Amino acid sequence: MSKAKILIADDHCVVIQGIKSALKEHPEFEVIGESGNGIRAVETAKSLQPDIVIMDISMPHLNGLEAAKQIIGLSPDIRVIIYTMYSDKELVIDLFKAGISAYVLKEDPLSDLILALKAVKEGGTYFNTLAPMVLVRYINEIESIKPEKDTFDNLSKREQEVFQLLAEGKSIKETAYKLFISPKTVESHKYNIMGKLKIKSFIDFTKIAIRKNLIHL
Description:
Elements: E1 4-9, H1 13-23, E2 29-35, H2 38-48, E3 52-55, H3 64-74, E4 79-84, H4 89-98, E5 102-105, H5 110-121, E6 126-127, H6 130-142, H7 157-167, H8 172-179, H9 183-197, H10 202-211
Parallel strand pairs: 1-2, 1-3, 3-4, 4-5, 5-6
Helix pairs in contact: 2-3, 3-4, 4-6, 7-9, 7-10, 8-9
């Protein structure tokens, strides 16, 4: 079983230790680094190339939002999970725009963070119950101006099937299972879709799916 390499960025040691302790029961994850400030988190992500970064918002030197933007910019393969006590709607919208893969509140059970890690490891997304409501608002704001030409119809039938399942939050493996194809084929379709639609994150899948009335929140 391949392990997902994890970097934890939080300025509270007790939080880092709590996450590391919880992950001991899940051998599919391996913590390869930790950081107590945003600048160091970006530097560590650049040098260690983790699969997933668990990122707090409130950190010294560089806040989690800006750090997340820089880390996501380093490599499209690095996924960011925001693990925070802040639920401000405007902040969540900014996080969506940055391209995060998951959003979990610290007031929620730690098991929610584990669920988020599992979902992201499999190529999916995970968001706190607040997020869908905020996402709808985000879509209403930035989708008020429609593109001149809707490129969604340029997708093949199979690509549209893959698109919808991914937009619903299904993982790569779940999508492959439902469509009776291999995970590698799903990955290939995913990158083709992202190229055709000019999208950069899984949040964009959900945005377009809601606008096309393919899914409802």
